Amino acid sequence: MEKGFQMAARAMYFLATIVLILFALVFVGVAAYSVLHSLASFDIEAATHRLLDGVGMIVLAIAIFEIAKYLYEEEIVRDRELRHADEARRTLTKFLTTIIIAASLEGLVLVFEARTSDMSAMIYPAILLMVIVFMVLGLGLYQLISRRAETIDPKEGDS
């Protein structure tokens, strides 16, 4: 029964991976179409907004693709449990780093979009960038604590 469940779980992860890759490709296609369509109109202001929207969509596509790659590598190819603290730390760090990079790029795109409008539009990108800073600090703190925990021998406390 356990073997059947593992196969069903792997099939589900594989299906989710394929769907996420398709979504990423659709975002790239929509971004390319949108940019090319706006460039053909010869409206510079509209083209600038479409380019920034296109960059945002491509950043989102990269984040979605990275999540699909993570699912494929960690849940299908490796097919292992995270039994050691260093494995869990590396996996979580890799996953969060992908999210931090995607959110950072999106924050920068929002800053460039906000600069073309009034300054009150700068609040949301600034908040997003501050949240990203806290994510980086939290990830660094997690790594520090988890590395220290790896060096502690649990048998020392038993004596």
TrEMBL record:
The chain crosses the membrane at residues 12-34, 54-72, 92-111, 123-145. Keywords: Membrane, Transmembrane, Transmembrane helix. This is GNAT family acetyltransferase.
